[in-house]
Design brief:
It is built from eleven helices and no strands. With about 250 residues, it is mainly α. It has two domains: about 30 residues; about 220 residues, MetI-like fold (Orthogonal Bundle).
């Protein structure tokens, strides 16, 4: 109940600040009421399609980066020979701003969803690999000795020790990656496409339709909120032991 109350207070605070800015900025920042009314109206038109396309792109990107990056990172943290090689590759590639490869991917793969999905996946992939690798490497050997003494193989060690120990850090990295992914999604949807929230927002901006523009921003916020809520739900399911220890389960 307390958590719901805090959510309510947070929403009221945001709406109040938004309303104050709309009074000061005039038509450039529409009021919350005007934006919500426009948002509901546009949902019956084509905004829902744009939201679905954006949600598909970001969910596919997150799934791809998670399913490849996490197992690779966990393995690198435990296998020194692989880590000695791949850590150098990661150190070289990680600082490069991957967003500059969007034009290259569009030329190589066409103007569909694939280049956008691959670019977002590539950016999140490095976050996932580095976090999973560091979390796996920091596991104390004593944590694995007991299960090894019982005759556990490598698969059992990963399943019962390494993966559970690393999941909280991985979910933290996933939350951070969500914000990055949404930003990159917006950028990729402003190039050579007619679908997606990024396109919808920029199209409204070129027409100086500020109600639609802020409806697009609200739609992007809804997508982000849904993804964060889904991440929290997954963490509470997969890392249930963590919340039981803090008396939240």
């Amino acid at each position: 109940m307390t958590r719901v109350k805090y959510y309510f207070y947070a929403i009221i605070s945001i709406v109040a600040i938004w309303y104050g800015l709309s009074i000061m900025a005039g038509p450039v920042i529409p009021s919350p009421y005007a934006t919500i009314v426009t948002f509901i109206y546009l949902l019956q038109d084509d905004l829902l399609i744009h939201m679905a396309v954006s949600l598909y792109r970001i969910m596919t990107s997150l799934s791809l980066a998670f399913c490849i990056g996490v197992p690779l990172g966990l393995t690198l943290g435990q296998e020194k020979k692989f880590d000695d090689f791949f850590s150098i590759v990661i150190m070289i590639l990680y600082p490069i701003p991957k967003i500059v490869f969007l034009p290259v991917l569009l030329m190589l793969l066409g103007l569909g969803d694939l280049p956008r999905i691959l670019l977002i996946s590539l950016i999140i992939f490095f976050h996932m690999v580095v976090t999973a690798r560091d979390a796996s490497k920091n596991i104390q050997q004593q944590s694995m000795d007991s299960i090894i003494s019982l005759g556990a193989g490598k698969y059992d060690i990963y399943r019962h020790v390494i993966v559970p120990a690393c999941m909280p850090q991985i979910f933290t990295s996933l939350r951070i990656s969500l914000g990055t992914a949404l930003s990159v999604l917006f950028f990729t949807e402003t190039f050579a496409t007619t679908r997606g929230i990024g396109y919808f927002i920029m199209d409204a901006w070129t027409r100086a339709d500020y109600n639609e523009l802020f409806s697009g921003i609200l739609a992007m916020s809804v997508i982000g909120l849904l993804l964060f809520a889904l991440t929290d739900m997954l963490e509470k399911t997969i890392c249930r032991w963590k919340y039981c220890e803090t008396r939240i389960c």
